[in-house]
Amino acid sequence: MARLRLATVWLGGCSGCHMSFLDLDEFLMDLADRVDVVYSPVVDAKEYPEGVDLVLVEGAVANEDNLAMIRRVRERTRILVSFGDCAVTGNVTALRNPIGGSDGVLRRSFVEQTDRDPQIPFAPGVLPVLLDRVTPVHSVVSVDLYLPGCPPPAPRIRAVLEQLLDGRPARLAGREIKFG
Amino acid sequence: MEKNELVSLVEAERASRRPVQVRVCTASACLASRSREVAGRLRSAAGRAGMVDRVDVREVGCLRLCSAGPLVKVEPEGVLYERVGVEQADSIVGAIGGGRAEARIGDPSGPFFARQLPMVLENSGVVEPERIESYLAAGGYGQLDRVLRELTPEEVVEAITRSGLRGRGGAGYPSGLKWATVAKMPPGRKFVICNADEGDPGAFMDRSVLESDPQRVLEGMAIAGYAVGAEQGYVYLRGEHPLTIHRLRLAIDQARRLGVLGSGIFDSRFNFRIDLRIGAGAYVCGEETALMASIEGRRGTPQPRPPYPAQSGLWGSPTLINNVETLANIPAILREGAERFARIGTASSKGTKVFALAGNVCRSGLVEVPMGTSLRTIVEEIGGGAPEGRSIKAVQTGGPSGGCIPASQLDTPVDYESLKALGSIMGSGGMIVMDDRADMVDVARYFMEFCRDESCGKCIPCRAGTVQLHRMLVRIRDGQATRDELHRLERLCEMVKHASLCGLGQAAPSPVLSTLRFFREEYESRLTGG
Amino acid sequence: MSVHTLRIDEKDVSARAGQTILEAASENGISIPTLCHLEGLSNVGACRLCLVEVAVVGGGTRLAAACVTAAAEEMVIQTDTDRLREYRKMIVELLFAERNHVCSVCVANNHCELQEMAVSQGVDHVRYDYLEPRCDVDLSHPRFGLDHNRCILCTRCVRACDEVEGAHTWDVSGRGTLSRVVTDLNAPWGASETCTSCGKCVMACPTGALFHQSSTVSEMIHERTRLSFLVDAREKKQWHA
Amino acid sequence: MNAPTKAVGQDEAGSGSHPSGDDRFARIDEAMRRHRFEQDALIEVLHAAQEHFGYLRADLLQYIAHGLKLPPSRVHGVATFYHLFTLTPRGKHTCVVCTGTACYVRGVERLLAAIESETGAVPGRTTPDGRITLEVARCVGACGIAPVVVFDGNAEGSQTAESALDRIRKWNDHGEE
Predict the structure, then answer these.
(1) Is C134–A99 a contact, with Cβ atoms under 8 angstroms apart?
(2) Residue pLDDT, tens place only, C112-122
(3) What is this model's ipTM?
(4) Reported pTM
(5) How buried is residue B134: exposed, middle or buried, by Cβ count under 10 Å (0-12/13-18/19+)?
């Protein structure tokens, strides 16, 4: 049986979901036996490849890079998992939304809340442009499975991966779907 | 006032009439076109022409063809003038008794009037709404007088039941059954409420009835009070309509002064008092439990039913709530007899129905037709079809709780069941004609915005559901929604319809569902991929 | 006192006259989801989560809110059908979309009825737009705080204050989705002239909208059963543990 | 918040100047007395207060709560539930655009947009200079002559963007009248 091509993606989030993923401890060894990690913040791959079987997407869609990335990910991936509350609900990343569009947020952060040298950062091509609103992943592309939690506890991640590795349609139920 | 004094008052009123009556419409739409100034000029013109002994200028209620106002009608000649300007007063007075005025002459025997059957509106445009004498001289309060002398309360309820009258406020609940329920509650404090909180956008029937013939509604309420054993009535009026408030307040004062309301009415042992309660701008207060909360001075949020108001209503007492048109039917039913009334209309919908015909239609105004008249007769014959040679696309009935009936279904008779079968409702009688330019998705969006803004916020499906439905409709209209979103819209409509606490929320999805049913391609053609 | 027999979820149960479907179900170990209901307070039938299907004569069912519908003789009730599950899920999603419920940073995280409701109704994501209203946080009261971001307008605080404490400090202002709970004339809570600082509203709150000022993320544990304790003590002279 | 002025009870009925120094409070007293200080009369009393003061100031709400012995939050809840009550001052002129169905079908949304862009007014608000309060009504019930705009209380039918703007410009032209 061909090895599963696994990717993990980090959009607008704190990387806590990835930390929780690393908390899978010895299961990571089992996983290494059964999958090729083709793209992830923890591996050295510059470009998101074609033909990915499964991706865990951490973080909300917060800037234009995130937006381009998630669209590419969707195109090139069979099963897309919204991984953690930021991806599923917007969560902390989306806390800025009620403040207003990107201008309001930048002004609040870099002008109003700054004591020295207030200025709005502007570096085209270096700093990605913020979107006016942070959105969960499923409001931009279709999502196959939701894995909530902030972060999702390692056993919950493992449960999903095991189901998917066994070729079963993954399903979370009961307490496994709790936000927060 | 003693009864014989009333009789002589009526006689004096009749004797004061001059041979020619010039009736000037002073209902809302004509007033907005300065009809009161027209009346003043007509009076002074009659003075200048030395005709004060022969000509009466009377400020009457709605002459019905609102789109051609200000309207003036000269009786007994039966000449109708349209769009009368103040400068035409002399000419109109000059034409009395023969001759032709320099004014636009309407056709009182044309299709707008000929296809109508005024019963609720029989006094509209005839009596003077601000003078009770005028109503009395037209036989007003005769039925209250007779009922108190000749009928037991049970017999009155019986007559209303036999007439087959159904509530004109929306749902069409049998009025006799409602009356009987309240009547059968143990004696004690009971109330009659006239629901005049006509809030549907595009509806002005009840308002016109109250502005044209307010005493008739008060008489209906008093008869209802006698029948169910109530001594106190409330009229719950919209605060948005100062003219209606003014006329009703005046009407109640006059009726009280003459003793046709108050203690020992017509020398009987029956007491009945009516007070006004003025709403303050909340559509949801048309819902009866919200209306009662508002009368009690609280936020107009609906309560779960049961208990129904008939069992436990205002301040926990049995309460009869009828709408304006329902109550305005009562004197006519008792005068003509239940059987004659029941011969008008269809098997299940008896009598007439007043509609407020408006929108993209040549002749708009107040229309009263027998139940069972086809929509086509109303919009094409009476209304004259769409203006500028356009075609009719849909007719909206029932306001935000109703639906859009496509032109292909115009032969549908207007009765409670037929309209319901088309996913609309009779509602209180708003009827808006839409021509081929109408964007049905936007129509649905328009009504959803209304419901969103008028949701009281108590129950979640209505409060939060209408907000989401509105956003979805905007996206669909603007071509930004996927098929998946259309599916979500339909599921959410189902939930809001079935899970909401009161009629506002339950009916909020109706305009969406009915446009989806008849104009689905307008939704589908705008969907984007996905 | 008369007793009705009825059927709830294929189980024959009895109910005293005047009991609601919710009470009858609960006494028989059948749980129906609720949010605006709280033991010890009046019922308002507002959250619609307790809708159940009641069989009607001639076939089909009608929906009735179990908290305000009296149990009646020979009623046949289903509390957990596909349709009800679908509606309940939508209702919970609508609530999450309406205000800013960020469980991970909420004082009531892991002690929240809304969060639990999402779990029990299988809400793993929200299909509707997050409305993201700008909401105030009122920290003017020396002991308590009010975070409108978390309020679901269940009005349990309003009823607890009115019915149990008797102060009627709280009410609802505005309407529709712009409704807000307010103290007095919408003055800061700390400036309220009617508030007795009894904390019953805080006890009653299902979410992190009302909280003790000292609590940080996940620390706010409401004592919701204390209200029924007080009511029973006052009305029945029973001080149950 | 200022302590509420004491409501005049039945025993103090009289038409002299009001203890608060503002005789308009006597009109509120009158409305409360007419309803025998019954709590059910709250909406009627709020109508009276708004009629005489133009809008419902916080001290009026406090005064009414005190007079009817109602909790302040309930008075606030009622005053904010109903559209016709306003807790902020109105402009010198009011322009109420009917957005009922007949007016909608006859294109009132374009008319409203024209008024908004010309005056900078937002429905439900008063312009910052305090001149014009723009409002939308859900239906003023004069559908036969749609579209309808109510200028300072006078309903005018068959309006166009031009005719409505003409009316509004006249307000501005006539300065401080």
Answers:
(1) yes
(2) 999 999 999 99
(3) 0.94
(4) 0.94
(5) buried
